[in-house]
Design goal:
Elements: H1 3-8, H2 16-29, H3 35-42, E1 47-53, H4 54-59, H5 61-77, E2 81-87, H6 99-102, E3 108-112, H7 117-125, E4 130-133, E5 143-147, H8 149-162, E6 168-173, H9 178-193, E7 203-207, H10 212-223, E8 232-235, H11 238-250, E9 260-262, E10 279-282, H12 284-301, E11 308-311, E12 313-316, H13 329-335
Parallel strand pairs: 1-2, 1-3, 3-4, 4-5, 5-11, 6-7, 6-8, 8-9
Antiparallel strand pairs: 10-12
Helix pairs in contact: 5-12, 8-9, 10-11
Length: about 325
């Protein structure tokens, strides 16, 4: 392989000064290698597929959009394009497949969020390097990048207990999603560790989804009666927490005076409500970035080693839980005169 080709393809074993001079000439000439020609040489397309189900794209876009942005930004560093498509919950016919599958136009695939096992099984049969984000299918050997859901849920319950709450409710939906299941089970475990038995009357976990309307319905179920109301609510995600707050506003239930509420995900909408939503921060762009780095390694090394990466989370304390949060930047500036 010529020195120019080694530099273009970011290969090692090139003298740093030679690399600098070749790159300078490439910039001066405005040269851009044709991806089709590079694909013929390397038998790679230079594309990564990114799959979301229709439901996640339309209802959970604020969460998965940031993950997709992370993949897009990271892919540029590896000279890859990311091709986004949405699909139904299961694959039944070849005609339902994304075009990049039918045209063999991707080197690897990232699947974000809950998806039918049939999709992952199909990709496996095609021998395409595959990685799941925010989802796991135990029976399949697939690399994953997931969230530390248990740590995040534990931080929430620990914080509410420190504020003096002993009647802590939980609202959730889609219990078959591993992230939601982990948050709910940790909620129960954390209460038991504090010698508090979680009560059925404090929980609403039968909603079909985790959207704003599901949170509204769950809050209505928990707070319709006069007795047995929790003093604090842990929502499975921010969308449900915002739906819960909408119900509270309609019912003249004050947050946090009458009930504290905490979400999970740290989507931007949580900053636009009053009081601002206490939540668990998920590093969504970093999740997308990690996924691309791992997938590129799998493609480059032709590796079938399965890796499972868990990304850290932090509790973000704002007004909705009743604790005094960190002051806003504008408040700090004002205090400084």
């Amino acid at each position: 392989m010529s020195t120019v080709s080694l530099v273009i393809n970011n290969k090692p074993n090139v003298n740093p000064e030679t690399r600098r001079r070749v790159q300078a000439i490439i910039r001066e000439l405005g040269y851009h290698p044709q991806r089709s020609a590079r694909g013929l040489a390397s038998q790679l397309s230079g594309n990564i597929g990114f799959i979301l189900t229709d439901a996640h794209f339309s209802h959970a876009e604020p969460f998965y959009t940031k993950i997709f942005l992370g993949t897009e930004l990271e892919a540029r560093h590896h000279n890859y394009y990311v091709l986004l498509t949405t699909v139904g919950p299961t694959v039944n016919k070849t005609t339902e497949m994304p075009r990049f599958f039918l045209e063999h136009n991707v080197d690897g695939v990232i699947i974000a969020g809950k998806i039918g096992a049939s999709w992952v099984e199909y990709v496996h049969k095609e021998n395409i390097p595959t990685l799941l984000i925010d989802y796991e299918i135990p029976k399949l050997r697939v690399s994953t990048v997931t969230i530390d859901n248990r740590r995040g849920a534990h931080l929430v319950i620990e914080h509410l207990l420190k504020l003096g709450h002993t009647q802590i409710g939980f609202i959730g939906g889609d219990r078959h999603h591993p992230s939601i299941a982990a948050r709910y089970s940790t909620y129960c475990d954390s209460l038991r560790e504090a010698n508090i038995a979680p009560l059925e009357s404090w929980t609403s976990i039968n909603e079909s989804g985790t959207r704003v309307e599901n949170g509204y319905n769950a809050a209505k179920q928990l707070f319709a009666g006069l007795a047995g109301r929790p003093s604090a609510v842990f929502a499975a995600n921010d969308a449900m927490a915002l739906g819960c707050m909408k119900y509270f506003r309609e019912m003249k239930i004050r947050v946090p005076e009458d009930v504290a509420i905490v979400g999970f995900d740290n989507v931007e909408a949580g900053l636009l409500v009053e009081p601002r939503l206490t939540t668990v921060n998920v590093h969504r762009e970093e999740i997308g970035s990690l996924a691309v780095r791992r997938l590129v390694e799998m493609i480059r090394d032709r590796s079938d080693v399965i890796t499972r990466v868990t990304t850290p989370v932090e509790l973000v304390v704002r007004e909705s839980c009743g604790a005094r949060p960190a002051p806003r930047l504008e408040e700090v500036v004002h205090a400084m005169g």
